[in-house]
Structure formats: structure tokens, C-alpha cells
């Protein structure tokens, strides 16, 4: 073996040895611990639960979720529908969570892990409570582990805390427990939309055929032209992925000066939306030195575009009749969820549905050849 070759082998050996020393092995506690379920009774009873409550610092209730027939509701937000997918995922994780390492049993150290009693005003954890009838004890979910996977937890009333084998999606804002989707109408479905302002100004744009790529803005004043096709076409996506920021009974809002936005889809579904801008709620948060931003609220209802319905009924082709039936079913489902509710929406969505003609037009270039 050459001296050069030997030198390289020596260097590689030293590097590997150093790497082995740097990789943490299992501690005696980790190697010897037997994984145990955090909440052993939850897996058998999870399908029978009818209430889950989340409590934060100072014993402040973040949200109480109750089962109501085929869905769950957020009690503190007027009983609006809860995000079932998020709740289901959390309950599944809690039911399957296992303790991988026992942690401190000394109350003076609980706050380091975020598992102190949440009655403390400075508590950083969240207590997850189940109904007394379920027999499942409450558990305090603490901080995420640093430099490793998992999250700290402590069963209410127990002295020992624990490191779990997984993280948990546990929102601490009440609104994050709401089902966020209001409607989701893809811009590709739209064939017509209109905007009506309280002062009488109206915008109408439509496609001559559902296969057309662009919308045609109607009633353009003389001497004006469309600023860009995109500026008009973009409004057709106003109801795409429309999500709420907050919810309230529609009766709590004054709709007398509402802007009205309507959209029609190729299958004859029509959505009618009313939009208002309101002063920020008392206690609204704003950046330092700035006023709290205005809030934008909507209410909506779904129906059928009459011309499309008439065409489906009169047509001899079954496909057209099916389209009308599909649209009626979609309208009924949307109304079932949104009737009686008002939604606070992002500003950019409000802006999209409340455009003025001046936003879409520019003066005609008379100098063009």
C-alpha cells in the first residue's frame, strides 16, 4: 500500500470516528422506556365523543366544539360549523399518541415544557377537555420539542409530564376551528358576472360561449376601452377559494348600502353576493402608528339562472336536463350552509367583487393609426 493511499485511509477513518462521536445515541431513559398510550381510553371512545373544549392561559376558553347531528359546531361562534377535518386529525393523533420519554414531575419545571396548569395567566399550553361522560381525562398539550420530533404533554391531575411521539395541530385562535370554505367556484366555470353599486353603476361581462377564453365587458362608454383582458377576466375568479376570516349572523349587519356581485356558471348556477365595508370591530388590532383596517363582510345565496333552466327543460337532450338538475343540487347545498350567515372576507376578495368601470377602462388612444 502506498504512503499516499494510507494517508487517505487514515483521514477517512478519523472523520468517520468523529462523526460517530457527534451522533447522539439513545439515552438510558429512552432506550429503556416502553412506549405507552397517552390517553389509552380515547381510541375506543373517540367515535362516541360529543364535545371537545380547548382552554388557554388564564382558563380562557378558546373554543368549545359540539357534535350537532352530522357535523360539529363552534359554540362560541354562534354555533357555526367546525372544521371537521382538522378536529378529526387532532383526535386521531391524540388517540394514537404514545409517550416516548418520561419528563419532569416537578411543578416548578412545568413551564419549561409548557405543561403548567393553564389557570396561570402566563401559561403557554392548551388544555384539551372531553365531556365528563366520555371518561377521558383532560390533557395539557405543551411546547414542541427543540431539536427533535414530538411535543410535550401532561395528563390533567398527573404529576409526570411526557414527550409524545408526534406533533399536534392545535390552533390557539378561535376562528381557526371554523370550517373556512364559503364557496369555491372556479373561474373556468363562469360565463357571466355583474357588479351593481348602490349609486346605480353597473358592470356586466359575459362570454358569448362557454368555450371562449375571455369575457366581453358590456356597455363600454364612448372614448374608453378595456385596460386589459386580464383585468376583466380576473373578476370571474372572485368566488374561487373564497374563505372566511370570521362569521356572524347576517341579521347583525346593515346591508342597505351593499354592493351586489352576481356570477353565473355554465351549468346554470347563479351566486348572488352582497358586500359591505364596516369600521373595524372594537379592539381591532393594527400595526403601531396605524389605524385598524376596515372589515369586509358578505352574505350570499345560490339559485338558478332562469335562461339556463328554461333551456334545460325545453331541450330534448338528457345532458342538458342533467345540467339543470346538477345546478339545482349545488344551489341547495350552498344555501344549506350559508343561509342566515355573514362572513368577513379578505380585503382583496372584496376589492375584486366591488370594482368600478373606472378600474377596468382607460381612454382610447386616438393617436393610434
User: What is the percent of helical residues?
Assistant: 10-25%
The counted number of beta strands is 22
Ranges where pLDDT stays below 50 over 5 or more residues in a row are 1-32, 308-316
| Dominant shape | elongated
Biggest sheet details:
10 strands, antiparallel
Q: Give the strand line-up of the largest sheet.
A: 1-6-10-9-8-7-2-3-4-5
* Strand composition percent: 25-35%
Number of helices: 10
Radius of gyration: 29 Å
Distance between the ends: 85 Å
Mean pLDDT rating: 87
Instruction: Assign the structural class, choosing from mainly alpha, mainly beta, alpha/beta, alpha+beta, or little secondary structure.
Output: alpha+beta
For this entry, give a set of tags.
alpha+beta, 10-stranded antiparallel sheet, elongated, 8-stranded antiparallel sheet, disordered N terminus, 369 residues, 10 helices, 29% strand
Could you give the topology of this structure?
Layout: H1 3-22, H2 28-32, E1 36-37, H3 42-45, E2 51-56, E3 60-68, E4 71-74, E5 80-81, H4 84-96, E6 98-102, H5 110-113, E7 126-130, E8 139-144, E9 151-155, E10 162-164, E11 181-183, E12 190-196, E13 202-206, E14 216-217, E15 224-226, H6 229-233, E16 242-243, E17 246-249, E18 259-265, E19 269-278, E20 295-304, H7 306-314, H8 318-338, E21 341-344, H9 347-353, H10 357-360, E22 361-363
Antiparallel strand pairs: 1-6, 2-3, 2-7, 3-4, 4-5, 6-10, 7-8, 8-9, 9-10, 11-16, 12-13, 12-18, 13-14, 15-22, 17-21, 18-19, 19-20, 20-21
Helix pairs in contact: 7-8
Amino acid at each position: 500500500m502506498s504512503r499516499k493511499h494510507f494517508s487517505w485511509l487514515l483521514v477517512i477513518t478519523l472523520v468517520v470516528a468523529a462523526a460517530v462521536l457527534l451522533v447522539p445515541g439513545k439515552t438510558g431513559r429512552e432506550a429503556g422506556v416502553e412506549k405507552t398510550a397517552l390517553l389509552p381510553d380515547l381510541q375506543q371512545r373517540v367515535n362516541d365523543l360529543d364535545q371537545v373544549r380547548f382552554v388557554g392561559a388564564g382558563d380562557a376558553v378558546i373554543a368549545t366544539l359540539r357534535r350537532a347531528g352530522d357535523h360539529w359546531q363552534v359554540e362560541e361562534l354562534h354555533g357555526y360549523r367546525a372544521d371537521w377535518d382538522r378536529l378529526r386529525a387532532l383526535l386521531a393523533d391524540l388517540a394514537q399518541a404514545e409517550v416516548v420519554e418520561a419528563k419532569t414531575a416537578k411543578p416548578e419545571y412545568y413551564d419549561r415544557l409548557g405543561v403548567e396548569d393553564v389557570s396561570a395567566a402566563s401559561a403557554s399550553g392548551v388544555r384539551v377537555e372531553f365531556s365528563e361522560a366520555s371518561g377521558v381525562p383532560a390533557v395539557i398539550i405543551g411546547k414542541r420539542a427543540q431539536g427533535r420530533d414530538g411535543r410535550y404533554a401532561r395528563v390533567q391531575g398527573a404529576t409526570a409530564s411526557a414527550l409524545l411521539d408526534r406533533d399536534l395541530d392545535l390552533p390557539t385562535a378561535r376562528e381557526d376551528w371554523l370550517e373556512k370554505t364559503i364557496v369555491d367556484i372556479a373561474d373556468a366555470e363562469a360565463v357571466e358576472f355583474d357588479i351593481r353599486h348602490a349609486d346605480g353603476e353597473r358592470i356586466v361581462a359575459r362570454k358569448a360561449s362557454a368555450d371562449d377564453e375571455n369575457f366581453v365587458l358590456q356597455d363600454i362608454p364612448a372614448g374608453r376601452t378595456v385596460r386589459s383582458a386580464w383585468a376583466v377576466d380576473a373578476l370571474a375568479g372572485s368566488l374561487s377559494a373564497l374563505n372566511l376570516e370570521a362569521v356572524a349572523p347576517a341579521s347583525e349587519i346593515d346591508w342597505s348600502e351593499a354592493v351586489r356581485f352576481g356570477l353565473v356558471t355554465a351549468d346554470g348556477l347563479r351566486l348572488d353576493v352582497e358586500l359591505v365595508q364596516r369600521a373595524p370591530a372594537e379592539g381591532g388590532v393594527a400595526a403601531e402608528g396605524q389605524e385598524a383596517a376596515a372589515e369586509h363582510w358578505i352574505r350570499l345565496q345560490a339559485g338558478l339562472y332562469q335562461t339556463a333552466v328554461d333551456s334545460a327543460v325545453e331541450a330534448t337532450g338528457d345532458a342538458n336536463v342533467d345540467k339543470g338538475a346538477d345546478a339545482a343540487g349545488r344551489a341547495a347545498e350552498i344555501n344549506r350552509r350559508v343561509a342566515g350567515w355573514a362572513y368577513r372576507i379578505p380585503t382583496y376578495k372584496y376589492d375584486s367583487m366591488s370594482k368600478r368601470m373606472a378600474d377596468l377602462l382607460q381612454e382610447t388612444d386616438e393617436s393610434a393609426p
